Amino acid sequence: MIAENFNYDAPSTLEEAIALLHQYGDDAKILAGGHSLVPMMKLRFASPTHLIDINNIPGLSYIKEEDGLLKIGAMTKEVEVEESEIIKNKYHIFGDATKLIADPQVRNFGTLGGNLAHGDAANDHPAVMFALGASVEITGNQGKRTVPIDEFFHGFYMTAVQHGEVLTEIQIPAASGNYGSAYHKAERKVGDYATAGVAAMVQIGADGRCTKVGIGLTNVNSVPMRASRSEEALLGSDLSEAVINQAAQYASEDCNPSADLRGDEDYKRHLVKVITKRMLNLAISRAKNQG
Amino acid sequence: MKKNITFKVNGTEHSVEVEPRELLIHVIREKISMTGSHIGCDTSSCGACTILVDGKSAKSCTLLAVQANGKEITTVEGLATAEGLHPIQEGFHLNHALHCGFCTPGMMMRAIEMLEKNPNPTEEEIRWGIAGNLCRCTGYNNIVKAIQWASAKMQDKELPSTEPEFV
Ligand SMILES: Cc1cc2nc3c(=O)[nH]c(=O)nc-3n(C[C@H](O)[C@H](O)[C@H](O)COP(=O)(O)OP(=O)(O)OC[C@H]3O[C@@H](n4cnc5c(N)ncnc54)[C@H](O)[C@@H]3O)c2cc1C
Ligand code: FES
Ligand code: FES
Predict the structure, then answer these.
(1) What confidence tens digit (pLDDT) does each residue in A151-197 have?
(2) Is ipTM beyond 0.90?
(3) Chain B: closest CA distance from residue A7 (Å)
(4) Contact, B135 vs B107, CB < 8 A?
């Protein structure tokens, strides 16, 4: 399978990339890891006339804690997240998620920025970002702006990244106190997209009450979604089994899965309930072992 | 618009003119005439096209050739030396880790990066490590044994038995 013809540029600065995006107009696309875009171009689901490869732009790949934030450069590859010490020590959710994303070869190329900018509810990082309360930094020729993850996904393959803009950084409130996070998805086989997936983050105060919580759901809605009612039930609670069951029930009721080859609607709702419960319990046990 | 790209394949520099839409696997097979890397699925699923790009295992059916500009590529043809087979090749040979052989070049290239990062993987780590490579013949057990054998050989450790197991 071969894509339609296109022109290719590989600028070495962000300014140049943004200028090229403006010059070429709507039909230009950014090439990051290419592991979502190239398959779509081969199938001719996407036929950009210009590809702007941003791999030669230095300084877009890093993982660091700064100003109370965990900052991840947009071009950071899955494999770099998997191997990062900061992530391994404090943000277990990424270890859970990356291991279930595709396979090692794909993770050598796929980037975190690309995973979000693709705007696909089947991708795993969107739910993780909802759980962690992330924001996304977007750079255009007017400078930088920051968009909360709740306002980032606009529709099927549509995000807050406008034409002529580049997603440059992911910003996550740094882990503090007794903080735990976890992700799991049910998949038919290794490397498959989620039948349903749940990302959870909790912070527990000295009195045992939940001081912070986030729950994101994968592939059970047309856009990645937050399980808001579940979060409300958990926040401030004692995180008892009854509350967790209630939160899991809400998540299964509030998602909107559609029937497909991966399962019917009831099955997916059931998965959401079971996985929400498990991920909350895992995040809670991780939180209790930390801080 | 055609592009001229320069890259090294198994240590030799090549300059080729490509259309941006040409896939790396096609250029390696058809323009460099190295047909050891295979095309199985053409959809990034099977791993038969796995090569190393600057040492990183990559599905070359999902990379554009232009993305390889300036890079060093290793394919299965680059493994053996004048002294003989690479330990991973020897491991596959001695442990009967291939039947039809279609998946083998990709399996070996993937195993090489895995062993580079983790010279002594557990069986579970090996199975996760080759999760992006499909084999329709062997049932994987002998592939796992071959990688364990190569791991021992590359570390000058005692070599595991290569006797077949009957279960
Ligand atoms: C076999 C296979 C299995 C997979 N399984 C999974 C899975 O289980 N879970 C999962 O989450 N993903 C999966 N993926 C997708 C993979 O993780 C992709 O790499 C990822 O979704 C996109 O990242 P990328 O860097 O490759 O982006 P690209 O493919 O380069 O780009 C994707 C889209 O985002 C845009 N874009 C990229 N970067 C930016 C940026 N910085 N600013 C603005 N726009 C940008 C591009 O223009 C394009 O429209 C799989 C892929 C394959 C091939
Ligand atoms: S041919 Fe590339 S992964 Fe199958
Ligand atoms: S040996 Fe035939 S596909 Fe693996």
Answers:
(1) 999 999 999 999 999 999 999 999 999 999 999 999 998 889 999 99
(2) yes
(3) 6
(4) yes
The CATH number of B87-154 is which of 1.10.150.120, 3.10.450.50, 1.10.10.10, 1.20.1600.10?
A: 1.10.150.120
Does the residue A1 lie in any domain? no
Of A136, A285, A132, A124, the residue nearest A219 (C-alpha)? A124
Helix residue ranges, H only, chain B: 24-26, 87-94, 104-117, 123-129, 141-154
Contact A196, A220 (CB under 8 A): yes
Full-model pTM? 0.97
Tell how far the Cα of A103 is from the centroid of ligand 2, in angstroms: 12
Q: How far is the CA of B40 from the centre of ligand 2 (A)?
A: 5
Whether residue B64 lies within 8 A of chain A, CB to CB, comes out as yes
- In single-letter form, the type of residue at position A229 comes to R
Contact assessment for residue A257 and residue A185, using Cβ atoms and an 8 Å cutoff: no
Indicate the length of chain A as a whole number. 291
Radius of gyration of chain A, Cα coordinates, nearest whole angstrom: 19
CATH of B3-78, one of 3.90.1170.30, 3.10.20.30, 3.60.150.10, 3.40.50.300: 3.10.20.30
Cβ-nearest to A191 among B3, B110, B131:
B131
